[in-house]
Design a protein that fits this description.
It contains 17 helices and 13 strands. It is α/β, with parallel strands linked by helices. The protein folds into 2 domains: 218 residues, Glycogen Phosphorylase B (Rossmann fold, 3-Layer(aba) Sandwich), CATH 3.40.50; 183 residues, Glycogen Phosphorylase B (Rossmann fold, 3-Layer(aba) Sandwich), CATH 3.40.50.
């Protein structure tokens, strides 16, 4: 079965390479051949690098330039014009299933499939429109929001399968799509990571990395790895670290991010912490070794409406590396996965008492039983966030589509 994955990404986004290609590569063994049509902007080098990565994974790749002017209309026009690119790809690759990721690719797909019976597997990708309301100032009463909300609902109704990252996302999308929307078409999938890459390390390797960081022997190491921006509670993370330092004065914080300048400006409010905090930009392949040598991972995200449908990739990376976590409730299915045996869930990142409780848990519960936590976290990570688990999730969804096409015959496809 030939699948066309239609995605919309900026040049700095690496989800295609890091998240989807490993899944597509393994699904090829089950008879699903993926082809990527990526709407993007930016330099030619980024597209060439993605093309090489796709080729290495046995995936065909084609990029389409997004018109960015005028700002809002350019994106909509690119999506409408993109329907022609989708139709061309359908013919050239003999496509059986279209898999749009998020709303604008869904718009292009709906236009492209007018009069055609090709099935759609819609990767809803959280609630991206509501993320723009929560974090980018988009008005929920604006024309673009109302238009794209309607496109989202139409795509859910038209799709054979809808992929989400949380149970709450399913409830929201069913309510928006309206009566008659079948819950059976929804599949919750995980953001899986390769457990052979994100893994625990032996004590000698961990000590080597810690020495490279200049850590004292047995000094507790807290880590954050990932993006910075409005949705991440950096202030709460720094406050939590200050509370940990009161209890463990030799504790250190390592922040791995592509935007270290964001951290530097935030540290002005915590001048006493500066000597204990290291901020680094490192290649993605080096991140697992730093995670494996740490003692606590931070995943504090602002629990806005849109975040109920999100899945923090870093949560899985932490657990697979044997790292207990402090995470925020209300972020996707975090509370269903994280319990006191692998982490501490905070309901209110602005609550001093909850941050105090998290600091006490780390110092008094985690540190004395670090090896036991390492083993439990690894087991939970494999069960909930491994690449194998993600592949199983995706294959279940695509197997259902394959069975539908067999039941309904070739007319369903064409």
């Amino acid at each position: 079965m030939n699948v066309l994955f239609v995605t919309w990404d900026g040049p700095q986004v690496t989800y295609l390479e890091s998240l989807f290609l490993p899944i597509f590569r393994q699904l090829r063994r089950a008879g699903f051949r993926f082809h990527v049509l990526q709407f993007t902007w930016g330099n030619l080098e980024a597209s060439k690098a993605r093309q090489i990565a796709c080729k290495d994974s046995g995936v065909a790749y084609r990029s389409v330039t997004i018109w960015r002017r005028p700002l809002a209309a350019g994106s909509l026009l690119s999506a409408v014009k993109g329907a022609l690119d989708i139709r061309k790809a359908i013919r050239e690759y003999d496509i059986d299933v279209i898999m749009p990721r998020s709303t604008l690719p869904a718009l292009a797909t709906l236009i492209a499939l007018r009069g055609k019976g090709l099935p759609i597997v819609f990767d809803a990708d959280g609630l991206p429109l509501d993320e723009r309301v929560d974090f980018a100032g988009l008005s929920p009463s604006s024309f673009s929001y109302r238009l794209l909300r309607d496109i989202e609902a139409q795509t859910v109704r038209r799709s054979s399968i809808v992929m989400t990252r949380s149970v709450d996302a399913v409830k929201t999308l069913i309510a928006r799509a309206g009566a008659g929307t079948q819950p059976a078409k929804f599949h919750v999938v995980t953001n899986g990571r390769d457990s052979n890459i994100f893994r625990t390390m032996d004590s000698d390797f961990r000590e080597h990395v810690r020495q490279r960081l200049g850590l004292k022997e047995n000094a507790p190491l807290v880590i954050y790895a990932g993006s910075m921006g409005p949705k991440y509670s950096l202030g709460a993370m720094l406050h939590l670290f200050s509370l940990i330092r009161h209890r463990a004065p030799d504790a250190q914080l390592l922040i791995l991010t592509g935007t270290p300048e964001y951290v530097i400006s935030a540290l002005d409010a915590y001048p006493e912490l500066k000597p204990a905090i290291t901020t680094m930009r490192v290649p993605s392949h080096r991140i697992p070794e730093y995670l494996a040598c740490a003692d606590l991972g931070l995943a504090l995200i602002k629990p806005t409406y849109s975040m109920q449908a999100a899945s923090a990739i870093k949560l899985g990376e932490y657990l697979l590396c044997g790292l207990p976590v402090v995470a925020t409730a209300g972020i996707g299915d975090t509370s269903a996965v994280v319990n006191e045996h692998v982490g501490f869930v905070i309901n209110d990142v602005d609550s001093d008492s909850q941050l105090e409780a998290a600091a006490n848990w780390f110092v008094n519960v985690v540190l004395p039983a670090r090896e036991a936590f390492r083993d439990r976290c690894r087991r939970v990570g494999i069960a909930s966030f491994s690449l194998n688990e993600a592949v199983n999730n995706y294959q279940c969804a695509f197997d259902k589509v394959r069975n539908l096409t067999k039941e309904r015959g070739n007319d369903y496809l064409r």
